[in-house]
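Kindly inspect the following:
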Amino acid sequence: MTDARLDLQRRDRLGMVEAVWGEHKTVDQIAAILPRFAAAGELALVTRVSPDKAAAVLERIPEVTVHEQAAALTLGTLPSTPKGAAEVAVLSGGSSDRRVVAEACLALRCHGVGVDPVMDVGVAGLHRLLNALPRLNSARVLIACAGMEGALPTVLAGLVPQPVIAVPVSVGYGVSAGGRAALDGMLASCAPGLVVVNIDNGYGAAMAALRMLRSAQAVRPRSS
């Protein structure tokens, strides 16, 4: 049994699927929560699940899908994404940011949003980012994940007109302080309009992007 109070009306209220934080929940708790989503006809997303915990949940509920790179679980069929160019591009400073990128991509896929992951374009080799700029033209929102000093979102937001959501990642040597240096740098950015979420919060960045997309659709003028 679990005392979790699921927000099964979140999709109707906000247009979002509730995500379950899995890192501090036991296998028993997760295994008790997932069938409640299924009974309500709702897609379940559990984030921050270790490989051992994921394997134990899968043994109890074989219908679960394990997303190893995102360290997440889903139960239910992910919606299909529209054909054509992805609405959101998710960039990483380096390959060590992969888990956060994968979490953001999965969270958007759970809402039927097309995503283009653009990996390893950190500013230590600025040419990599510059070469990727044409690929970003068709995206409506950009998410930039970076550790170390966290410069990628600032540089990106100075080059492109789309909304940029910055995600500090807990990657880097000692002074990086588990992502705090990247967070502080992003918060102090001189790039106008840069939006910053908390350390490693790929899910939060994805939901911010979703709000932007939905808001833009709501105010888009009707064609005559």
